[in-house]
Specification:
This protein is an alpha+beta fold and 146 residues long. The chain has one domain: OB fold (Dihydrolipoamide Acetyltransferase, E2P). The protein is built from three helices and six strands.
Amino acid sequence: MKKALILGFVAVVSMAGVEEKFGTGVSLESATAIADVVKNPEAFVGKTIRIDGTATAVCAHMGCWMAVSETDKADSPTVRLKVEDGVIVFPVSAKGKAVSAQGTFERIKAEDAEGKEAASEHAKHQAKPEAATATYQLKATGAIVK
């Protein structure tokens, strides 16, 4: 019994600092500030960037998107990560954890289904329902959740 408790404790402690890699992970050495991306999104369209922050929301249905903010405060600027459905699946347990993600920043058409979903989710997590006009996202190819 004592041995089982010790082994269980060791397993929990050893997993405490584990990073979980999704997709290709992150190769860019420096991150672009989320506040800069949100302030001037057109400057980043078509560019491969890395962002670092805290996961504030994760798709509960398919794990196909994640909202990442610079801080866990409600008014913190947020970028939506979108991944190819079924290729990368973010676990709901990533919410509240540190995230580094890399991909191509893109403008999406508001009339497309993806654009409507992005705008709706963005508005929910920014606590500004009237601002459901989000038309930008990071098409992530990889991420690390810590």
